[in-house]
Design brief:
Number of helices: 5
CATH topology of one domain: Porin
Strand content: 25-35%
CATH class of one domain: Mainly Beta
Shape: elongated
Largest sheet: 12 strands, antiparallel, barrel
Oligomer: single chain
Radius of gyration: 30 Å
CATH architecture of one domain: Beta Barrel
Helix content: 25-40%
Order of helices and strands: HEEEHEEHHEEEEEEEEEEEEH
Length: 333
């Protein structure tokens, strides 16, 4: 019998609408970044267009290895006000010791004009555009395909929304609760099977790797399963699924970064998991040993996955599908 509670099968009448206000977050971030970038060019434009005219005498310019040279001196505006301190937008090799016209604005006195001042905000603008293009490409190529599949799954009967804290039904009612444990609980039995694949690249893991435990309980705090996540420097990670008493039932073993094998405690392969054909890396299909799809999942961003298990899925693969959804949420797995 499956340790994960079966979600109800009737059509859902209250479904969370896809693409909610989370879509507005990237747009809001883009607006904030643009406004932050535009402040400096805006103040420069005001200074050169409407800043008070004056005359400055450059006393000394100091070169810096970490940035542009800084020049200091004194200045007097047309209204008779005087000042002393840093003078901006100068050529340290040519302007030191000279007296030259300046404009005094909110950012202080600036020499020359836009012919020298455009470089810094121009580079910042180029970086901002490149970041925007990069985000657009990543969103369209990775997140949007996964989100589209997630929205389709969410509208289907029996869908679950899975996050680090557990899972819930599409109408918001609780399904499971996941809690991290500080150590292996009493009764835990370790399972080691041969054939673990080598990891390509390291994620800054400790020398001896990392093992952490997550308990999964159903409604009413009924224990359902224990997940033992194991990561090592030179081997692909794996997760052991234990029953509530600590006896190992399944081993979910990653093989190449996005693909998994699902084994029973004796090492027999029960199924596999891999990205869906059109869903990109933020998607997953769980197949049984005959290649039949028994569960599908897709990411709605980086903090939630939508999971739908076929009604006739074998109980072990039903449990494995839920465990795999939790695994997909672990960035340092």
């Amino acid at each position: 019998m499956s340790s994960s509670p079966d979600p109800p099968r009737p059509p859902i009448t209250s479904v969370i609408k896809p693409r909610t206000s989370m879509r507005k977050v990237p747009a809001g971030v883009a607006v904030v970044m643009f406004c932050a970038w535009a402040v400096h060019p805006g103040l420069l434009a005001y200074t050169f267009a409407a800043g008070e005219k004056g005359t400055a005498t450059v006393g000394e310019c100091v070169e810096s290895r970490r940035g542009p040279a800084t020049c200091h001196g004194t200045w007097r505006t047309g209204s008779g006000e005087t000042g002393e301190g840093e003078i901006y937008n100068l050529d340290s090799r040519e302007d030191e010791g000279r007296t030259l016209p300046v404009r005094v604005g909110p950012l202080g006195p600036h020499g020359h004009g836009w012919e020298r001042a455009w470089v810094s905000p121009g580079i910042g603008g180029i970086v901002l555009v490149l970041l925007g293009l990069g985000y657009t490409l990543i969103y369209r190529g990775v997140f949007r395909r996964g989100r589209k599949l997630a929205d389709e799954l969410l509208a289907a009967p029996g869908a679950l929304i899975v996050s680090d804290g557990g899972s819930r039904l599409a109408d918001g009612s609780p399904h499971t609760i996941a809690r991290a444990l500080p150590e292996a609980p009493p009764g835990h039995r370790r399972l080691d099977l041969p054939g673990r694949a080598a990891r390509h690249g390291e994620l800054g893991l400790p020398k001896d790797g990392r093992t952490f435990f997550v308990s999964v309980a159903g409604t009413g705090e009924r224990p359902l399963m224990l997940l033992e996540h194991r990561s090592e420097k030179r081997l692909e990670p794996e997760t052991v699924l234990h029953d509530p008493s600590g006896v190992p039932r399944l081993l979910i073993r990653r093989t190449d970064g996005t693909r998994f094998r699902i084994l029973d405690a004796g090492g027999t392969e029960l199924g596999t998991a891999a990205p869906a054909g059109d869903g990109g890396v933020l998607s997953m299909e769980v197949r049984d040993a005959d290649g039949k799809v028994v569960a599908e999942a897709a990411g709605r961003g980086l903090t939630k996955w939508v999971l739908r298990v076929e009604p006739d899925a074998p109980p072990p693969l039903r449990d494995a599908a839920l465990a795999l959804a939790f695994i997909q949420l672990r960035g340092a797995y």
